[in-house]
Specification:
Number of helices: 6
Mean pLDDT: 87
Low-confidence stretches: none
Distance between the termini: 72 Å
Oligomer: single chain
Largest sheet: none
Number of strands: 0
Number of domains: 1
Shape: extended
Radius of gyration: 26 Å
């Protein structure tokens, strides 16, 4: 039904993609990379993250109307004004591409769709979790290797093997 907004939001090319089956190899490998190269468990992790963000968090954000997200598309990477129209940057920029403060106060800030904001939030959270995971699970090893590299100058087997060859002259 072309006039059913909810149906178009959860299906199809511009919605959440429920029920859409894609048989094009390029579509499969565009986001997840090749299933031949990446382990199966990594694909499962990516799919679970996708489902959490796109099929759970984004619809909740939209239908609970967080951040007035019902004025905007459910998922879009475009910037919108307060009325849900595309943000017209020419209204707030001078000819030198500097922000006109008076025009900005009148026109207002740009808004992102709730699904896009949630996607960004999960992306930043994954970067933070990567850093925390590295510190918690590998921190002792990293500190140990760093200290040993400073204290023991001859602990690198590659440097030891290369020491048998003459230095390359600077002019070379």
């Amino acid at each position: 039904s072309p006039k059913n907004v909810v149906l178009s939001q959860v299906t199809g090319a511009y919605g959440l993609g429920f029920g859409a089956i894609e048989f094009d190899w390029n579509a499969w490998v565009a986001y997840l990379d090749s299933p031949i190269l990446v382990p199966f468990w990594a694909h499962i992790h990516i799919f679970v993250g996708f489902a959490a963000v796109i099929w759970i968090a984004a619809p909740l954000t939209y239908y609970l109307n967080l951040w007035d997200s019902k004025k905007l598309p459910i998922i879009s990477n475009s910037v919108f004004d307060k009325d849900g129209n595309f943000y017209n940057t020419s209204k707030i920029l001078t000819k030198e591409y500097h922000r006109n403060e008076t025009a900005y106060e009148i026109y207002g800030p740009g808004f992102l769709s709730g699904g896009f904001v949630i996607s960004y939030a999960f992306t930043f959270a994954s970067i933070a979790s990567l850093i925390v995971h590295t510190i918690v699970y590998h921190g002792k090893t990293i500190v140990k290797q760093f200290r040993s590299s400073l204290s023991e100058k001859n602990n690198d087997i590659h440097a030891k093997l290369m020491s048998h060859y003459p230095e390359v002259p600077e002019w070379w």
